Amino acid sequence: MPFSVTRVGNGQQWSHQVEGEVKWAHQSVGRKRGHVHAAEALECLGGNGYVEESRMPRLFRESPLASIWEGSGNVAALDTLRAVAKQPETLDALFDEFDAAAGADAGFDRFVAGVKAKFAHPETVAFRARSVRDLALALQSTLLIKHGHPAVADAFTASRLDREWGTVFGTLSPGIDTAAILDRSTPTA
Question: Which domain holds residue 34?
Answer without folding.
Answer: 13-185
